[in-house]
Each structure stands twice: as structure tokens, then as C-alpha cells.
Design brief:
Largest sheet of chain A: 6 strands, mixed
CATH topology of the largest domain in chain A: Cytochrome Bc1 Complex, Chain A, domain 1
CATH architecture of the largest domain in chain A: 2-Layer Sandwich
Helix content of chain A: 40-55%
Radius of gyration of chain A: 23 Å
Strand content of chain A: 15-25%
Strand order of the largest sheet of chain B: 1-2-6-3-5-4
Shape of chain B: globular
CATH architecture of the largest domain in chain B: 2-Layer Sandwich
Largest sheet of chain B: 6 strands, mixed
Shape of chain A: globular
Oligomer: heterodimer
CATH class of the largest domain in chain B: Alpha Beta
Radius of gyration of chain B: 24 Å
Strand content of chain B: 15-25%
Number of domains of chain A: 2
Largest interface: A-B, 78 and 77 residues
Structural class of chain B: alpha+beta
Distance between the termini of chain A: 57 Å
Strand order of the largest sheet of chain A: 1-2-6-3-5-4
Amino acid sequence: MINFEKKVLGNGLVTIVHIDKSTPLAAVNILYKTGARDEHPEKTGFAHLFEHLMFGGSANIPSYDEPLQKAGGENNAFTTNDITNYYLTLPSENIETGLWLESDRMLKLDFSQRSLDIQKNVVIEEYRQRYLNQPFGDVWLLLRPLAYKTHPYRWPAIGRYISHIENATLEDVKDFFYNHYAPDNSILVIAGNVEADNTFGLAEKWFGGIDIRDVPERNIPREERQNEKRCLTVERDVPSSAIYMAFHMCERMGKEFHCADLLSDILANGRSSRLQQSLVKEKKLFSQVNAYLTGDVDPGLFIVKGMLKKGVKMDEAESAIWQELDNLSSSYINEEELEKVKNRIESQEVFSRTNILNKATDLAYYEFLGDASMINSEIEKYRQKTPDDLKDYAGTIFNHKNCSVLYYLSSKK
Amino acid sequence: MHKVDRKIPPAYKQIEKLNTVESRHTSLANNIPVWLINTGSPGALRVEMVFDAGAWFQSRPLVATATNSLLPEGTHRHSSREISQKLEFYGAYLNQFTEKDSAGIMLYALEKHLEPLLNILSDIVSEPAFPENELSVFLSNKKEEFAVNIKKVKFLAHRKFSSLIFGDSHPYGQQADLADFDRLNRDELVEFHRCHYHAGNCKIIVAGGFDEKRTLRLLNRFFGDLQRVRGSKGAKSKPPLPPAEKQRVMIPTGSNVQSAIRVGRIMFNKLHPDFPDMMVLNEVLGGYFGSRLMKNLREDKGYTYSIGSAPVSHINGGYFTVATEVGSHVWEEAIKEIRKEFDLLCDEPVPEEELLLVKNYMMGDLLRSFDGPFAVADNLRSVITYGEGMEFFSRFTRSVADITPRRLQELAVSFFGTGKMCEVVAGSKAT
């Protein structure tokens, strides 16, 4: 059980405090409710580029990093298709330094052409390092637009093209800031060895004076229902071929979300999982297999991927996966197998909660989804699922009409 | 609402000492040393068994890794599938690792299931069967993974760098190639396991929230009669290192938009009295986000997404390395800037202001690295394998507090000023 207190400041900033006296540290997590899905299709990669600019100094503080490092702190951030999340940890006595820094960059960034130019380069190198210069690095650049035709999930957070990053102007940057970065569009979580009253007081002191901003209402096109199987074949200079299958599934708050998560664990989480046992060990068709959810807020994807062993034909590999998926919708999962994946989810949760920053980040994310107290009730939702529920949902999503397949072939000469 | 003056930073405190969970040291009936790191809650724990069974002890590549990886893939009593089903049913999972000196296995368990889980762990560690079929699946899958890895410039640069530093035949420098995956046989694993996974070679660290008495009783029941192997080879003699001449090696690849760079040299390990000071010097150069290398090559020039440096310590030697991936068109400029940063540390004392920031940051970072029982256990393991104890960290803390710009400069001159750096570049323009 994770206890916390929640208050909403006058400007709409939701503030959550979780006390943990077992650590000498405190964590500050600020979640901005903006991500790649809020970008214009011709200006993608913007939320992520913006994340980099947030470290370039703010209105009253020329350097973000230096004062934090002086106070013994460390920070980072990540951008997904739904959110941009900033976090820091520092010795708990120095918590105010963290709040001072975070509040000033929420108030106003120091927009400079030089900072923009440098960070554009850094992000372009990140793009190259992660997406272009790695074997299989471009998979998500290919798979997203195959699975999504209208929804902005069709591009990855890094952006559709490097040119979108190159073309970003200072004006675009300012617009993005004032349209998305606002106290009424974010969630502040402070966790660690702190006192609640004092901490809420400090949050009010540093964030309370920031004005409400007019955050434009989100207007995201719904993805049309997919009606036929989509296939894309590419050849690349990789040593072995791979297959990526993407199935549309429900949104994060949909009632079948937990079914999908359990199904992905039954397929591929752990050595005793079905795909591991049957396709890697017995049939020796793949060297690696995986199944997981993108877990997006809007309807997301259920991904099954496999790296083919040398000499294995693509259609043989694909039909072996289909057979496993069909098994899930044609016969019941036995209680013991279901119990196994539920137990595993429960223990993974226990282990992830031994870290103060994980707790802060989770609280912010659940509050973003609707209610921070979900942090304590998710397990129960998994527990309630029955073999019937899983069989039904497998039948709903694992069909050819709902599937986009990327055949990623080795072009070895 | 009263207005706050945002230009004035809030006061902050300097961290002077390290407050962490205490560890308790004891041993089993057969003298296996045990460390307990207990936070009292929440009924979940990690049991870690560490053996002197790393790459250092193998006669050729892959033996140490394959032995460790195959431990849970079948024992004389249970198949691989039975083992994984049981473990996973209890919500437990394993983490295995093979490093240069040590290898081990970690069991993450809920306390309520500890007894049956330790029973499985003991079976895995003492009676592995190394089934032929499992070995062949493992090798052929690892071979394919390897084929993907050698497409990565980072991997290529790292391999070459290690073999340059230590020499191709040194156990720290030796690299696997594709053919090694076809050569390995089951007998080698059986023999490696017999010689290196036994009570005389083992340490146990338990971390989390648990009942100490009960846990120790169970450990004694399952591991207290694990035998020491008689007549197993003692310490291996150190092979000679290659002459550390300054050299640059280029590894040309196909079309890569980035080149991977390694710059560095052989160095002492963490038992050397200069090691803690070296950690501070490294921090200034490339040890954190605000380091000189990051400021110069990322934040000022935009050559890279990331650059860092580190002293790497093994029991029988260590090295210092700068590592980065940069745009292929700027690799020469990048190396020039890296050299410039080495020179600057030799030529000018680190300004007091910068040193103060680095000291405070390092103390905060140390505090972070001890957050939670598993983190404490990781730190403990990193010193007990050297025969050191937690006093290593007190020495380290003192070193951070006391170090002066003058001392840093002396250290820089003696290690970076001798011109004996190896440089490796892997990428498309590297011809």
C-alpha cells in the first residue's frame, strides 16, 4: 500500500506527496500532459526536442544542471507519445533546490537560438544513434505508419523525419511551450524523506505564483477500424530476418487492458512462457521472441516480434506464431498458468516499489490516467480476470484483419 | 500571494556522511560467507550467490558465460521447463551475470515462498546437467545475437579497445568470434562448473525485508553442505600485458552515419591508493552529465548524443576509457576535442568552483547509489570480491572531501600526460 496526500493549487497544479522515511533521498517528478500525439503531422519530434530545450536554462536561472548538481542532485526526462516526464532525485534536505528549478522552467524558458541550434544537433545525433545506426533501429519508423493511418501514434516520439527537427524555429518552440507547458496541464509528485505540510508549503511557494495558461483542447482524430491485413516487406543489411506483428487493442483505461497484458505475459514473459518454450526451444524457429503492449493512453498496439533462425522461412515462422495466437482464442488457459502470470505481475510490482523514484513516477502516471490511487488497485484488476475473459479478448484482437505485419528481411549477399 | 525572488537559489546542505542500511556479516556451516542487508519490510528479498567464475578463469571464450547461463536449463532432477514453471509460479525470477572476475545468480523472491525457491536454487547451482539440447539452443541463439552485435560500431570499437589494452591472449582482452560458438562442448561446462562453482568459491548476499533467523536457517539447510572442491586450480598467474604504445586503430565498416570512438589506456584497479582520487578526476572529465566532455562535445559542439569516461576496475588490472558515438563526418574533430580535454586537465588546475560542484554532485550520487537494499547489495558486491569491506566507501568519501585542484593536476599529468593513449574508431569514414 502506497500512502499519499493530494492537493490542487489555485492555478490547477495537482500536487502529490508520498512520504518514505527509509531513504535519505527525495524525488521530484513533473509530468506534462503533452507528448508526440499533440504534435502537428508536419512538425513531428517536437515534444521530444522540447524536452532537450528544457535543460537550456530558464527565465531566472541561466543553468538548470549546475545548481542541481551542487545540491547533490541528478535529473533526467523522457518523452513518449502521450507525455513528457521530468524527474530528479537529491538529498531530501535539499528538496527546495529541486522545486525552485522545476518551477522556474515551468514559469518561462530562456528561449535562445543558440540553445535551439545545439539541441537540434544533439537530437539529430540521437536519431542517428538509436534509429538509423543500429540493426533493426528503424522498425518503429516503419511499423507505426503501417498500423496507424490517421492517429498521431503513426509517428514515433523522435519524429517522422530528421528534417522536421532541422526545420524547427524559435517561434515554433515558443508556441509549443505556451500551448502545452502550464500548471494546469501538469502533475507534480514529491516523494521521499520529507514532511507533508512543509512540502506542500514549498510547492505553493514556488509553483503557486505561476499563472494558469490557456491550454488548447486536445483534438485527436480517432483511428478508423482496420479491415484488412496490412503487410510491409523491407530488406536491410542485418544478419537475420525478423517479423513484427501489431494488433490494435483497447486504450489504457479500457476494461480489457489487463486481459491484454496477461495475454502478453502468457505468450512471452519468462522462460516458461508459451512462445519461448514452443517456438524457441522446441521448434527452434526463432532465436528470440517477445510479446508486449505499447500501453498508450489512446487505443494502442499488442506487439509480437520474433528473430528468425537462419534457414527458417518467413511464412513458416509467421504461421507458427498464428498457431499460438489461435490457441489462446480457441481453448481455455488453465488456472495454474493464469495464476503464474498474475503472481509474477504482483511480485514485479513489489520489487519495483523498492525505489523512491519509481514510486514518484508511477504516482504521477496514474494521476495522469485519472487517479493516483490506482497505484494501489491495479493488482486487483489483474486478479479479477478469468480464463473466459482472456479467451474472449484473444478472439477479439488476434485476427488477420486486425493485424499489421512487418517482414524485415536480411539482404545478406 | 507574496512574491518570491527567483534569482536567489534556496540554501542547500553539503552531504558529509553516508547513511545507509547496515549489513551483517556471518557464515554458513561450511564457511560460505553471508552478508545480510535487511530493511525489515516488505517481505520480498533477493538472494545472490557470487562465485569466482568469471571470464578470467576460462581457457577460451564463452565457457564462463555458457556455464552460468545454462545453470537453470536443467538439472539431474528437473528439466529446464519444470524449473522455470516452478520459479515463475511463485512469482520469482532469476538474474544471472558473468563478469570478468565473478559470475553469479540472483533469485528475486517473495518471502512467503522462500523455502521451495531456495530448494530450486540449490538444485540449479549444485546439480546442473547442462543438457546437450539446451546447450545447442543457447549457442545457436547467442551466435545470431552476436552476428547482430558485430553490426554495431559501438560493439566493434569496444572489442578492439579491450584487446588492444590487454592483448588478444589475455583473459580480459580475449574476444569471442563466430567460430567459437561452434566449438564449445558440454564437457568444458561440466568441468568449469566443477572447478568454479563450489563452497570455497562462493559468497552469498541477501537483501530486502526478511526474517533473519529463518532465512539463515534455510540457507544453511540448502547451501550449508555444498562441498569445496579439492585440488581445483588456485590463483591463475597474470599473463604479461602488451607494450602500451600510443596507437590508433581504425575499423572501417559499411555505411554508418555515426562512428564509435574509444580513447584510453591501461590503469590500476580499485585496490590502488590513487583509485578514489582518480574517480574524482574522471568525474570532472566525463563522469556526469555536466562533465567537461559532455559540455564540450554535446552541449557546445553538438557532435554527439552522449559521451562519457570511466575508470574500469577488474581484480587483476583495469583501464581508463572515454566512449562515445559521433556523427561520422566529425570523428576527427571529436578526437581532437577529447585530447584537448586531457591536456587541459594536465595544464591547468580545476577551478575551485567547478571542483566544489563535482564534490557535491559525487556525494549526492553516492547517496543515490545506496538507496534501497538491492542498491546497497550491489555496492557491497563490488568491494567484497576484492576482499574489501564497506570501509572502501568511507575512504572514497574522505578522498572526495579532501582532494585539491593541485592533487588532481598531478594525477592528470601522471596518467593522461604521458601520451600513451590508445584510440579506436569504428565507422564508415574510418579508413
